[in-house]
Structures are given as structure tokens and as C-alpha cells.
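BUG: 3D viewer hangs when loading the predicted structure for this chain

Environment: internal workstation, default settings.
Expected: structure renders.
Actual: progress bar stalls at 90%.

Input used:
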Amino acid sequence: MRGIQVRRFGEPDVLELVELPDPVPGPGQAVTEVAYADVIFLETQIRRDGAFFAPSLPYVPGGAVGGRIDRLGADVAAAWQGRGVVAKTTSPAQGGYAQRALAEIETVSVVPEGLDLREATALVHDGPTAVRLFDNAVSAGTLRPGAWVLVLAAAGGLGALLVQLAKAAGAHVVAAARGERKLALAREELGADAAVDYTRPDWAEQVRRTVGEPGIHVVFDGVGGAIGRAAFDLTARGARFSAHGAPSGGFAELDAGAAAAREVTLAGIEQAQFSPAEAKPLLDRALFEAAAGRLRPVIGQTFPLEDAAKAHSAIEAREVLGKTLLTVA
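C-alpha cells produced before the viewer hung:
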């Protein structure tokens, strides 16, 4: 089969199209014939220098796919054969940038009727995370009708879902992103009440003028760094600050003492770290909401499998809207 392999860490050109052996399903596993593979920012960081965790070289990138079940492990029910599914890939060495991918059957989700496989694939990574972050904010009592919510990286795959979930809950949303194209998406397609460009030096003041007193009740920080730190200063007393993103190079460095003094609850990346067993019901819920038309992943661009390097380059250049997918079949 054709697939993308990384033999050394480095620039996007290390993503090579090669011939690979077909994966063989073991007990409790299935092989998916891949139609779409998700591409995320974390995969560009791993490819560059093995950041966060370094897979053994060579490896095939890609943690999420959509397609049809092609082969089953000996103990997997025959009813799975041919089903349209989305799944997280099993092996860090042989991921989803390939014509076939391996998954544990207990973590595979059937694509519900009425939902396109392409859109379903776009929800595999970000759907569970968005639902978990949203639920946590609602449970804390800070995300409620009439509350002000600030979403950083609002035009990204995760941010776009959070904007929609917050609006559906009756909150007012300020979307923060880079460039007019992304701001237009947030305002015109996602329904944000206001949109600001956080590359402008006065962006925080724009937010402050928009929301007034007491300030922002919930911050979903998908950026980190200095932008996340500036967003913290906009929070109201008793607010919730979710620091789950670090594409700027690091998570926002926040003063726990200052947060405690203002009764601001700080939550971090641990919210987005869950086992496959925890992720599946969250993904199923996101798929159901999308099938019902209440949640829509934004797919800004697709690339053929052989152009995986171009996909990585576009993500690293901050050129992309929403999700980026590879088309495989």
C-alpha cells in the first residue's frame, strides 16, 4: 500500500511517499481502508523534532482516519465488515497517512446516517476535546446563557467547535484569530458576536470595550504564550480559564496567586488527555450533534496523500482555516 513515512526528523520534505506493508489485524482490531486522514498541528511538531514524544524512526504519521472496515481480527464480529467508520489509529509507528490503518475495534465509531464521512473524520481529534472542555465550563457554572466567552484560535478545528457550542448554550462569544479571513469565518459562519485579530497590539483593549464590566467569564485558550497571558487579564472575578493550547511555543504562564485572588479557576491540558475508552462516548456525541445539524466542523482545505508535506507547510505557516485533511482513497 502507499503511505507517508518519516525516516528522520526535520522540515516537511521528510514526509516521503513510499510503499508499505499492509497492516494485519490482531485480536480486537480492525483495518480501515482510509478515505481521509486528519492532519493536526501536533503532528508537525513531532515531525520537526520529536516534540512531546518521539516515535521510533521510521514512522507513519497520522492519529485519526475515516473510511470503511476492510479486514477484521479473528474475534471481531463480522457485522463490522464494510461499515463506514472513524477511528484513532493504534500504532504510533504506523498511523493514518496511508491507504490502510489499524485500530482497536472498541474505539471505532460508526458514522451516523446523515453525516458525511469527510466531516466525521474532521471530528475525531477535536470533537471529544471540544465536548469535554465545553462540559467542564458548563459544570463549573461559568458558561451559561448571557455569559461572555473568549475563544482564542477561534478559526481552528477545535476553536470553531467551541464557538458553536458556546453560542448554542446562549453565551456571547468573542472570537480571536489571526487575519481578516479567519475573523470573517468566525463572524459570518460560526456566529461569533465579535471577532478580534490578536496580532494587533490593541486586541485586548478591543475585547475589553466589547464586553465591558465585569469582563470575560470563560476563556478557551488554544494559543498559549503571551496571547494567553493577555487574555487572562480580561477575566472577570470567578471566571474559568482553560489553558489547553500551545501552538505559540508554550502554554500560557499564569500566576496562580493572582488567579486565586480573583477566584479564577485555572484548567490545563489535562482536560484534553483521556483514554480511548473515555474519548469514544465524547466522539459519538459530537458525531450525533453533527448529524443532527447542530455542530459543523470547518474543513478549510484538503490535500492528496502525496502532498502531505504541503499540508504540514500550510499548517506551520498559519495559513489554514479549520481542519486540514488528506484525501487517500
